Each structure stands twice: as structure tokens, then as C-alpha cells.
Amino acid sequence: MDLTQEIADRVRAATGPLRIAGAGTKAWYGRAVVGEVLDLTGHSGIVDYDPSELVVTARAGTPLAEIEAAIAAHGQMLAFEPPAFGTLGGAVATGLAGPRRPFTGAVRDYVLGVRVLDGRGDVLRFGGTVFKNVAGFDAFRLMSGAHGTLGVILDVSLRVTPRPRVEVSLAFDMAGGPARDWVTGLMVRPLPLSGAFHDGERLHLRLSGGEAAVSQAAAELGGEAEGLELWSVLRDLKHPALAGPVLWRIALPQTADIPALEGRLAWDWGGGQVWLSAEAADPQVWTKAAAAGGHATLIRGGKDQVFQPLEPALFKLHQRIKAALDPAGILNPGRMHEGL
């Protein structure tokens, strides 16, 4: 159902902050927003899908499960592997991607175009629905990971990809440090890698592609065959290594040393994403992540500050972009940083 007009009327009539909400499955991610709820769940449905063009367009409130079922029927998938719960709008707004991310790309790499409401209630269209139309200022990619602070996502056009013919998962008894070094070397080779995760005790690799390529790589790498269920659990952030009262996600250059931190460490994305499960939220994690050339996000265990603090110049740039698209500051204010 297309509820564009109703949603636009709500935004235009707003006299205070609006808390953009969909299915609510990602309400835990980000700082708390106090404001009137702007519910997008009814604004749903696949608008257009042409398997031959590898593009699907759907409204923000469309459940991801509905989209994935539709494209799976044609042997296709969302290559950035978002958590399976929630809606399309939530997936794009949070920018969460699964284990395939370093091998296939981030959420923003698959967004071809968006239709959004700005803070004035005006409908804006950025990007397109085919590759050749995706040109100019990449405002549509700004919506990925913006948590609704720059606009109310109405519709999204995504590039989809063919599903791999064969997938296997291999486990190796290898400590985290040597495993990270080994995987870094593997990733520069033409291997059909689609996942590299260390749970703190064992290394897990996923291979995806044609039968011959996967079989050859599996024979060369060795390891112990295991079920593919691990990758679904990891994608949905339900792996035991991610349990605990406090959970940090630390993005680092793949060759950077992992800082000394208190808690259980695991890593994904071939070593580029470190998970830290701890008993308490230590603010030094932000400092240590920055010193290593990365940044940290407090996924669970705190609401006052969640994302890596911004340098003053970068904060001012964020403020300017926010002011251009939401001059009154009513869309999810403070969701990412206080004052934005």
C-alpha cells in the first residue's frame, strides 16, 4: 500500500521531533529518540521487480522476508546479506550487512535509488533504477546508515545478484591472530570466499560459487566440513560469541593490530570487523579504535553514546547536511549523535 501522501502530511504537520519506526526490530541500534512516532509499517509492497534487470524496487515498510522470497524464486539474492529480520527501510537506514560484506560490498553499494521525504515533507528522488541512471551526487547512498536522520525513506531500488550454485563451510582449529594473517593472504587471491569469521576459538570460512571452483578451493584449504547454519546465525547477530550484556562492533583496517580490550573477542569480515562482548561499556574502546585507524559502535549496553565520537570538523559537515535536508531537525533527532 502506498501511504506517501499520509506520511508527507504527518511530516508537514509536525511541530516537534518525529521518531521514525517500522517493524521495530532495530530499535535497539542507536541512541533513543523522544518524539511522536511516525509509523511506516503500512507503507509496504514490492513496486517493481524485473529479474532480467537484476533490480527490485520496494516500499520502506516491506518485510525483508517478502523481498528475499520473491527474488529467491528467480535464483537471486541480496548480496550484502542483511539481517533477515525487519523491513527494507530499516535495513537501508541502519546499513547493517552480513558476513559477505567484504567480498561483495556494503548496503550502499547496492542502493541504486531512493525516494525520500525531507524534513519539509517534500518528496525527493535520488538515483535511479538502472545502473546507467546512477550518476551525479550520491545522495541516495547517504541514506544508508543515516538512521533516518536525513530523510524518511519511502521506496528503495536495489541491485540483486544471482545466488551461488554451491556453498560450503569449513572450520579450522587456529588461533585468532594467525588466522587473521592467513585470511588476509587468502583474500588477495582469486578464491570463492564469501565469509571469514573467527569465533575466538576456531576459524570458519565459507566458499560460494560454481561447483568446480568451490571444490578446488575446499580441497586446497582443507579444514573440517560444517553446516551452513552458522552463517545465518552470524548474519542475524545471534551467534554465542556476540552474547553478553555489552556488545561492541569495531571496524578496523584489516592489517591493523586489534587493540588490547577486556572481554571476549571474535572477528568477522576477514578481520576487518571485531566483535567485543564485555560485562561493562568501557569508553576507552572508542579511543583505542581510533588509535588503530578504525571506529567503534556500542551495539548493546548503552544509549547515551553509541557511535564513534566525531571530530569537530566532521561534526560540522554532518550538521550542514542535516540542515539542508531537515532544517527544523525533526527527523530522528539525536539518533546517531547529540545535536544532529
UniProtKB/TrEMBL annotation:
In Swiss-Prot or TrEMBL terms, this protein is called: Glycolate oxidase subunit GlcE
Identify the domain of life.
Bacteria
Q: What is its EC number?
A: 1.1.99.14
Which SUPFAM superfamilies does the UniProt entry name for this protein? Answer: FAD-binding/transporter-associated domain-like (SSF56176), FAD-linked oxidases, C-terminal domain (SSF55103)
Q: Which GO terms describe its molecular function?
A: glycolate dehydrogenase activity
Q: Which NCBIfam families match?
A: PRK11282.1
* Required co-factors: FAD
Tell me the ranges covered by the FAD-binding PCMH-type domain, including all copies. Answer: 1-163
| UniProt-listed Pfam families | FAD-oxidase_C, FAD_binding_4
Organism source for this protein? Phenylobacterium conjunctum
Alphabetical keyword list: FAD, Flavoprotein, Oxidoreductase
Primary enzyme class: oxidoreductase
